[in-house]
Amino acid sequence: MPTPLTLTFKIWRQIRPDAPGGLDTHRLEGLSPDLSLLEALDVLNERLIARGERPITFDHDCREGICGACGFLVNGQAHGPAAETTVCQLYLRQFRDGQVLVLEPWRARAFPVQQDLMVDRSAFDRILQAGGYCSVNTGSAPEANSLLVSREAAASAFDAATCIGCGACVASCPNASASLFVAAKLAHLGQLPQGQPERRQRANALQEQMAREGFGHCGNHLECEAACPKGISADWISWMRRERWAG
Ligand code: FES
């Protein structure tokens, strides 16, 4: 049986977007190392509710690293210290007994804090909406082999398509740039035949909406690539810039 852990959590508490926030300290003893970090927050929330206190608000959905709903800073690192891991896939065994964990929401002007560890990421939705639709007459289901896609193009597009839109790239960037997110979305469609209509227009629209939402410029710090839980390469940002000015 694994040795239980004692951890101290310093957690950002903020009741409303316009309210001041601060760190609350909670010490939890007897935690199983096999608990995920979110499950440790569940344990803490049950205790807070039992005491009649407000539970900690944090985003989550699948808890399997696939939906992109979760995300906050653990000791200043987006999604915590493990490489290519969402915070929902972070387990307490990855921390030391007695360690202090500071949990804070994403810090970016375009992601205003809603409550505690939850931020408003609807700016990402508006960026995608700015791309509009693909002018492809889908008709009935096409014959699978009628639209040829090379293996290289399919694999490369799939790499970009693994972006889950969690916002870790923005939270890690000193400029709070959304360049890796936007580049991944453009590179997903832009490498496939179905994405060729409006390809240049889409590249311009998404990048202009990114600027309107208040995200900063890419400064080639590459923190986004290091923080991305899906390991998406920052090379796509160079690709995105060429897309914008090529056509
Ligand atoms: S809750 Fe879905 S990726 Fe973390």
Q: Main β-sheet: number of strands, strand sense, barrel status?
A: 5 strands, mixed
Listing every helix as H and every strand as E from the N terminus to the C terminus, the arrangement reads: EEHEEEEEHHHHHHH
Bound compounds:
FE2/S2 (inorganic) cluster
Rg calculated over all Cα atoms: 20 Å
Q: What level of helicity do the residues show?
A: 25-40%
Give the distance, in angstroms, between the N- and C-terminal Cα atoms. Answer: 61 Å
The domain tally reads 2
The count of strands amounts to 7
Note poorly predicted spans: none
Strand order in space, largest sheet: 2-1-5-3-4
Tally of DSSP helical segments:
8
CATH topology of the largest domain: Fumarate Reductase Iron-sulfur Protein, Chain B, domain 2
Question: In the CATH hierarchy, what is the class of the largest domain?
Answer: Mainly Alpha
Task: Look at the helices and sheets and give the structural class.
Answer: alpha+beta
CATH superfamily of the largest domain: Alpha-helical ferredoxin
Q: Strand fraction band?
A: 5-15%
Average pLDDT, to the nearest integer?
A: 94
- Shape descriptor: elongated
